[in-house]
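User: what does the whole thing look like in 3D?
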Amino acid sequence: MVEKANIPTARRISPAWIGRAGVAALTALCILARADAAPGTPAAAPTTVAGFSYVKSLSGIDEYRLDSNGLTVLLVPDHSAPVVTFQVTYQVGSRNEVTGTTGATHILEHMMFKGSEGFNDPKGNSVKQYLERVGGQFNASTSFDRTNYFATVGRESLEGYIAIEADRMRHLWLHEADRQSEMTVVRNEYERGKNDPDNVLMEEVTSAAFVALPYHHPIIGWKSDIEHVPIGKLRDFYDTFYWPNNATVTVIGDIEPAATLSLIKKYYGVYPHSPAPIPAIYTEEPAQSGERRVIVRRPGELGTVIIAHKVPNGRDADQPALDMMDAILSSGKNARLYRALVDQGMALNAGAGTDLHRDLSLHTVYAVLAPGATHDQVEKALMAEIYKIASDGVTPAEVARVKQQYIAADAYKRDGTAAIAGEINEWIAVGDWTLYVTFPQQVQKVTPADVQRVAKQYFKQDQSTTGWFIPVLPTAEKGS
Amino acid sequence: MIRHYVLTALIAVGSAVAVTAAAANALVNSHREQVAGIDLITYHTDVKDVVVILGSLPAGDAMAESGNIAIPTLTGMMLDRGTKTLDKFAIAEQLDNVGAEISFSVGTQSVEIRAKCLKKDLPLVLGLIAADLRTAALQPQEFNKAKQQFIGALEASAQNTEARAHEAFGRAVFPQGHPNRPHTVSEYETAAKAASIDELKAFYAKYYGPAHLSLVVVGDVSASENQAEVAKDFAGWSGGQDFIRPATPAVLTAAHEVSVPLADKPSVSVIIGQPTGLRYKDPDALALRVGTAILGRGFTGRLMGVVRDKEGLTYNIDAAVADDSIVDGSWDISASFAPALLAKGLASTRRELDKWWKDGITDQELATRKQGLVGGYLVGLSTTGGLASTLLTDVQRGYDVSWLDDYPKAVNALTRDQVNSSIKNHLNPSVMVTVEAGSVPAAAHQP
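Assistant: Here's the predicted 3D structure for the full assembly of 927 residues, as structure tokens:
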């Protein structure tokens, strides 16, 4: 059970962040060679199962809707290995929480492993007992905009997992005794995150950047809410959001489409559509009227600088150009931030990336200070590289290089069903799974002028939120 | 092919017929040859266009022996910073232009090589790996940058509770001179500041060579073409040293506690354990691993089931056997606890440990765990990276590629008596070390 609150830009990608390097590669899938229907041509359904409506296909991904309850199903047949990844993504994240229930999405994710009516520890068939018995690789995660549950299993174990996953969609045990024991588990997860000052800094920068949108509060929640949220509130949350019409099932791997749809219908078809509409978020972020600053002082050794800017939602047409800019800034030893900061001895590492959101996204550039460097020096150097792109642009060679990296990454992504599921999941979260296919295609169309335009448009100083981690060294504790 | 092999074994775990078929497939799809003095393993899979390269060369931290302990890591850091003919930016440009990746990392005994590329770029990537290893430029200016970055990374790790706990544990269970005994952050930092380029050049000359280098190439690759490419790129290279294998395994005689105080840490990292005296390939080692999995692997391990699920004392607790591929290794339970719950967490953990050690495991637990271990192993082989990693680890442990197929058979053959005997014979909770790193309250130090 993973909570992804404290890692910046940890949504659809794991791009440049502390300790990580490399391109923020998000690539096209193109798993199958099958051609999609020409625009305007009604496509034939790849398979037909009574009760399902065929919606569309794109690069080997077929979308269906279960007519009786609105469940969305994505099928990605791939017979290169006899394994299957099954994933259910709920469109609920910390974005749907309010004061007093912050962290509820994540606690509920934990409670989903405490048993359901049909599958639980006393029966010896709980989700963890089943999946560990069959050697499944499984987990769950919560983010700002979604919650997902997933497992990779041998194909013969798929039906058993679907049955469990479907049962806990509507028949979850939510016992107060389980909440009490799980609360301290979640609190320790929170505490582990607080051990790392850089995580604390990123939380505080995000919190300062968003004033009204619920991205303001950490995904894991405020500690007092984690400790005190009543079981009744968790039940309300579950009964509001855990419905088939708020979920997408993705199945990737060694599957036969008609048989797989039949299994999904067998186990999920028993549920109705949610009795009430899924609540919409109508809050909008007010305009930022000046630069914001955050300082975190904690015991530590090296400082960190993070500079954040709000950028459009994850579906916006400017995101491919922003992604290109980030790769030029932070992908490999030829990246501009490496040359300007790391190679010059100012930073241990440096990077850039965007945490894509369903509403406004958050772009960050960061650097971990090398010994002897100052925060002010590093902050100026980071922004100088962005301003340089805004004033002078990028070269055609830089753009071409990143495009080649996307093409290679496209091939790498075919190697493993779980990785594909993880990326589709993040595009579902921002509101359009087809971006999994079309986003890399859009990157291939990005021009140097596009990159310069977005650098000019979004990276104004009065729209920034800058965070410094300033280490306070307890000298008596150093070494051992 | 491996894909079919996985299918067969998944369907019929425990079936002698299925496993026999699997062994035949592993041998058919893998090619292991000595090429230019290198142990080269090529494994073709059905993945399209993708090739993963992993390797290991015995030039890790332990090889510093009585010399400067920072030199092995600094040498590894210099490998991608320029060759005799290409500077680091030219190397990076060649890789970036085709979306390929090469990285090096330095471990206890070896430099690990990791690379990924498209099939068409395999000659380029193998050529660059060879150039990095054989003709590293070792320029003073880059050396000074590497030193500064190493020192910075050490300082960054100084406040990491898990890293500090592992450092303290390793020093408590392995004696001076044992390859698995780590140095402290402070020792590394002092050594890095004093390191000279001449020391680095001498280390590079002594340890970098093909004699004990293993390369594993997996994916959309032809064995004959790969062998020809490696033969060309590494022709004429010589030298290299073997791993360090101490004659006497580590032994603990008395329990003790080690506290690593770190301020303002809301979660304490805890390790309880001891040396095992066993290498992975030793007769009892697999039984101990399976028994350990029953205690502390996954959500259904006893520790997670009780200390986390029932008692809510921790987010994470597990047990594992570690660092035993080449030399005798260690056994440990790792966990995290809030300072206020530390004493309670330690008591619960020790209670479960004692129960497991005294009463052993049940037949039902063994049967279930066997199925899960074999199933998970096979799912893990379904990616190129997973398969390559398993193959490299297998050869480091001294197995042939056939172990890929033999592992499930070996697990399935274990009996409850073998597992319980191994636990009793090689572990003893009464002599285990307990390490606590973080903001440890005084009350938690009660035995």
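In plain terms: Chain A is about 35% helix and 20% strand. Chain A touches chain B through 73 residues (CB under 8 Å).
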